[in-house]
Design goal:
238 residues; alpha+beta; FAD/NAD(P)-binding domain; Polyamine Oxidase, Chain A, domain 2; five-stranded antiparallel sheet; 24% strand; FAD/NAD-bd_sf; Amine oxidase domain-containing protein; Flavin_monoamine_oxidase; Amino_oxidase; polyamine oxidase activity
Length: 238
């Protein structure tokens, strides 16, 4: 699948151009790319997005958080949600999420943020695992080695307006925006991205239903039917 390079709005149509030159045409589009992609202008909008939308994209901060998941043969750690270690400086602060408590699988996920996370990206997979295991063994000296390894988010900036998230999620004609940065209440989380996508899809559905005057073309999912799905497992940053 090729990446999107351009999104053009044309009288109730959206023309999406891919990097390989192919195009897609639709009545509307829901944009869920990370806010960092929007900030870097990796997608050209034609006509360009209005000033209020571009200022929201510009003023929302982007943080770095990396996850390193370690799967073990057995569980040797306490049955708590988070294992944390206080470091001498804020640079090396990180913590482990205990996925065994939520999923039943013997998995710990090491969370590193900020400049610390950026530097970890420069390590090889083996170096990253060795570093994380060193942190784990500071807390649990008899920790076993992992059997497998697997493998960021918007943030508020000081002095910026309070309505940035509302402006980011607001539609521009037939373009709708979703993702964790488009969630005013749960930015920086998986459930924030999920619920913002549900909201954007419903707003888009209502607009197209009214535009075409044929609401029966669209499957209406009643709120009662997906009420439980609106709140998925909430595992986010501490």
């Amino acid at each position: 699948m090729s990446r999107v390079s351009k999104i053009a709005r044309r009288s109730n149509r959206v023309i999406i151009t891919m990097e390989d030159g192919s195009t897609l045409i639709a009545d509307a589009a829901i944009i869920t790319v990370p806010v960092g992609v929007l900030k870097a202008n990796l997608i050209e909008f034609e006509p360009r997005l209005p000033d209020w939308k571009r200022s929201a994209i510009s003023d929302i901060g982007v943080g770095i958080e990396n996850k390193i998941a370690l799967r073990f043969n057995t569980v040797f750690w306490p049955n708590v949600e988070v294992l944390g270690l206080v470091a001498h400086t804020s640079y090396a602060c990180g913590y482990f999420l205990n996925l065994h408590k939520a999923t039943g699988h013997p998995v710990l996920v090491y969370m590193a943020a900020g400049r610390f996370a950026y530097d970890i990206e420069k390590l090889s997979d083996e170096e990253a695992i060795n570093f994380v295991m060193l942190q784990l063994k500071k807390m649990i000296p008899d920790a076993t080695d992992p059997v497998d390894s697997l493998g960021s988010y918007s943030c508020d900036l000081v002095g910026k307006p309070a309505d940035l998230y509302e402006r980011l999620c607001a539609p521009v004609d037939n373009l709708y925006f979703a993702g964790e940065a488009a969630s005013a209440d749960h930015s920086g989380s998986v459930h924030g991205a999920y619920t913002s996508g549900i909201t954007a899809a419903e707003v888009c559905r209502r607009r197209l239903s009214g535009q075409h005057g044929m609401s029966d073309l669209f499957h209406l999912v009643m709120r009662e039917e997906f009420a439980e799905a609106m709140v998925p497992l909430q595992i986010s940053r501490m």
